[in-house]
Amino acid sequence: MDDFAARLNELLDEAYLNILSMEEQSVRSCTHLGLSTGEFHLIQVVGNGGEDGISVSEIADAIHVARPTASVAVNKLARRGFVSKERSARDGRSIRVRLTRQGRLAYAYHRYYHRQLFNRLTAEFSQEEKAALIKGVEKLNRIFLETLIEGDKGREKT
């Protein structure tokens, strides 16, 4: 590993751990909801699906888990009143997952927390730094996604 790769690895590890810690801090600040960080992320994915909702398959793909795992998580959140499962108006065979009122409150809280955090973070960057950071993170995400897809294809062959 060259010096750049080693330093990038250190920085990404540190950023990842810091992000996890901030997410946990966010979760602790609203313990009355009783949600884990993963459940907040699932609620975020469902909320991003809009009024039409989102399928369990789409949720699984978005959070990079198997469909049965996503289904169990959705059922748990449905029992606790954060999401509802309804037949699609367009296709009666498919099930759409939507946020309930309680789910929308959790979604709004999570979005507010992220908005506050990133407003604070971005205030530290110049316009040029912001553009470079966005470009770099987009490239990282593309490479990570390609690596995930390649890994999935390798597992399918075995």
Write up this protein:
- The protein is mainly alpha-helical.
- 71% of the residues lie in helices and 6% in strands.
- A hairpin with a 7-residue loop joins strand 1 and strand 2 (95-99).
- Helix 2 (37-48) crosses helix 5 (101-122) and helix 3 (56-63) crosses helix 4 (67-79).
- The radius of gyration is 18 Å and the shape is globular.
> What overall geometry do the principal axes of the alpha carbons give?
globular
Proportion of residues in helical segments? over 70%
Round the mean pLDDT to the nearest integer and report it: 87
Annotation field: number of helices? 6
Helix/strand/pairing category: mainly alpha
- Strand count: 2
Biggest sheet features: 2 strands, antiparallel
Please mark out the parts with pLDDT under 50 across 5 or more consecutive residues, or reply none: none
Order of secondary-structure elements: HHHHEEHH
Proportion of strand residues? 5-15%
Strand order, main sheet: write it out. Answer: 1-2
Topology at a glance:
Blueprint: H1 3-28, H2 37-48, H3 56-63, H4 67-79, E1 83-87, E2 95-99, H5 101-122, H6 127-157
Antiparallel strand pairs: 1-2
Which short descriptors sum up this protein?
single chain, 158 residues, mainly alpha, 6 helices, 2 strands, globular
Give a short overview:
This protein has helices at residues 3-28, 37-48, 56-63, 67-79, 101-122, 127-157, and strands at 83-87, 95-99.
